[in-house]
């Protein structure tokens, strides 16, 4: 297929080639109407400035693009640091973009990274796959998915199998006598949201716990939804005595909301979060977590991308997860019930299997 030229974009937009060039280069000396027409024409023709020139030159820029779903998420902040340091060791600089969990913002960054002629892109995709991602793959720009994947797209990836860690967390809470475990889930449009929710529901059934659908709150991997999840779950007529939160940023929102309510973690309510952020261990009480190595994920993503850039077809990598028990999940169901009712809670003890009979619903 012949490459689309800027002349074709200008013709479709009804502007001069010079105007189209100024718009596409980001020159502010253009009218809003011209910018709108050129942007629409470029999108319709699937034009990416400079992408064709790069193909002709065959030159490398020694720059990699990293597009994370939310830079405020401590997990992705750690991932960005690891990717940057790993890339530097191989002679590459990293251009960072933040999708803010929005597909439109993701696509804008992808278009920019392509026009900047990066040698490859590491992407934590938002949603089920956009036109920009499909265009990225169709153009054979070296790409690796990190943390999340998109069904039907044959792209090397490095992800975490959260099943083992979630199973361990549910079993840990069940042994402490918790039969109603609240779950603050990630969005079901993301692979991690779906996979972790499926692992949770299976573990609940395997442990004979309450599968009340009201115990699940679907969040969006942002702090506000963690806070909203706490509000919804603790407002139930029969609230949960334990919470499992599907990612670190929602856990931050949940912890803030619990603090505002005067709910004591590890005493009034047990809690486990997915992602082991360094300062979670410094909280009082320290937060129990489902841990997976962000350092391994970042280094592996860079390694895979460099193989693709060099013409290789590396296999995807799946990393393990495991539960790390800390004080936030020390409370038994009986002490959580007492604390929630406003009466003095029994100091938490090490959970034993006999706690399974403390509270049933």
TrEMBL record:
Record InterPro entries: HTH_LacI, LacI/GalR-like_sensor, Lambda_DNA-bd_dom_sf, Peripla_BP_I
Protein's UniProt keywords contain GTP-binding: no
UniProt keyword terms in alphabetical order: DNA-binding, Repressor, Transcription, Transcription regulation
Region annotation Disordered: where it falls in the sequence: 335-361
Any matching Pfam family: Peripla_BP_3
Compositional bias of kind Low complexity: 335-344
Sections of the chain in a coiled coil: none
Highest taxon, organism lineage: Bacteria
Domain HTH lacI-type as annotated: residue spans: 4-58
Protein name (database record): LacI family transcriptional regulator
UniProt organism field: Cryobacterium algoricola
Organism phylogeny: Bacteria, Bacillati, Actinomycetota, Actinomycetes, Micrococcales
